[in-house]
Amino acid sequence: MANTAPLTRWSSTGNGAARIYLIGWGTVETERVATFEYQNAEDIRRVLQRHGAKYLFFGKSGAILLGYSDTTQDVDLFVAKDPENCSKLVPALLELDFPLTEQQQQEIRRGKDFIQLRNGPFDLDLIFAPDGIERFEDAWERHVDRDGFPVASIDDIIQSKQAANRQRDKESLPRLLRFREWLKSEGKR
């Protein structure tokens, strides 16, 4: 992705460089940096609702929708694994401009436990069997509707991160636990 940026000569640049590349505006190549944005959640909600897919925002993106102050690189969706629901996901994801390969479409239709999509308009993890959560139906019973977004409960998000036992989850757990306490104190659980 090309962005424009003002170019200024560094103090360590010799005079000869100034004559070759004058101070002014130039084009800078930048890599796409994946970040979860509110617009991503709105797009998912709109399209998956139209297709009738059953899902929950999960992981850190779910916590952010609950009010957690942090960033994440992707959107995590806990998706109901039944065949009817899985078949609704493929056309919804295609509508969201995810260029799914035939293999990815098959994995989604069969509800593969974990699928990472990194080639679409944003990074997306489809989670059909999250660590620490036995059944989607149970998580659905505990979920929170936050501004029209179906979000897994903070207890389920924390439980899954504890069960996954990954280093990055261990690092974020103390803050998530404090956030859960804040939610309780505010009556927003």
General description of the model:
The chain is of the alpha+beta class. The chain folds into 2 domains: 1-31, no CATH class; 38-186, Beta Polymerase, domain 2 (2-Layer Sandwich). It has helices at 15-20, 38-51, 59-66, 83-95, 102-110, 136-142, 154-164, 167-186, and strands at residues 2-7, 24-29, 55-58, 75-79, 114-117, 124-127, 144-146, 149-151. The strands form 3 sheets. A 4-stranded mixed beta sheet has the order 3-4-6-5. Strand 7 and strand 8 form a beta hairpin. It is globular and about 45 Å long.
Task: Give the key terms.
Beta Polymerase, domain 2; 2 domains; four-stranded mixed beta sheet; 8 helices; 47% helix; 19% strand; globular
Overall mean pLDDT score? 88
The helix content is 40-55%
Total domain units: 2
Question: Architecture of the largest domain in CATH?
Answer: 2-Layer Sandwich
What is the number of strand segments?
8
SSE string, helices as H and strands as E: EHEHEHEHHEEHEEHH
- The CATH first-level class of the largest domain comes to Alpha Beta
Give the spatial strand order of the biggest sheet. Answer: 3-4-6-5
From the alpha-carbon coordinates, what is the Rg to the nearest angstrom? 21 Å
- For the terminal residues, how far apart are their CA atoms? 41 Å
Low-confidence stretches: none
Shape: globular
Oligomeric nature of the chains:
single chain
Number of alpha- plus pi-helical segments:
8
SS strand fraction: 15-25%
Q: Would you give the CATH topology of the largest domain?
A: Beta Polymerase, domain 2
